[in-house]
Amino acid sequence: MNLPFLSNEDLVVGIDIGSHAIKVCQLKRTDKAYAVVNLGSATLPEGAVDDGTLNDAEIVGKTIAELFKNLKIKKKKVGFSISGYSVIVKKVNLAVMS
């Protein structure tokens, strides 16, 4: 699997912040692919994140720090994912133009 948006670093960490939980995945580059090294999740208190809006940044930060500590992840460079109605991606078809 080729992931061109990633740098040449050997380890890659991804964080998904959802309305109910935070998920963390750490990948390691192998010869031609990536392998999962660490995987974990932690439940968030109700209302900490609501529809992609971060209502309690302190709790979310502490939860991420605790996940990193428990999984023994020391990487500082990560990729984030936050979903919700305020995050919009739309596919638009347009006529060919000059």
Q: Which descriptors apply to this entry?
A:
single chain, 98 residues, alpha+beta, Nucleotidyltransferase, domain 5, four-stranded mixed sheet, two-stranded antiparallel sheet
Distance between the termini: 36 Å
Unreliable residue stretches: none
Counting structural domains, the number is 1
Helix content: 10-25%
Q: How does CATH name the architecture?
A: 2-Layer Sandwich
| Protein structure class | alpha+beta
In CATH terms, what is the fold-level topology?
Nucleotidyltransferase, domain 5
Total number of strands = 6
Q: What's the CATH class label?
A: Alpha Beta
Count of helical segments? 1
Strand order across the largest sheet? 3-2-1-6
Give a structural overview.
This protein has one domain: 2-Layer Sandwich (Nucleotidyltransferase, domain 5). The relative contact order is 0.23. Strand 1 (11-17) and strand 2 form a beta hairpin. The chain is of the alpha+beta class. The chain contains one helix and six strands; from the N terminus they run E-E-E-E-E-H-E. The protein is flat. The mean pLDDT is 81. It has a four-stranded mixed β-sheet, with helices on one face.
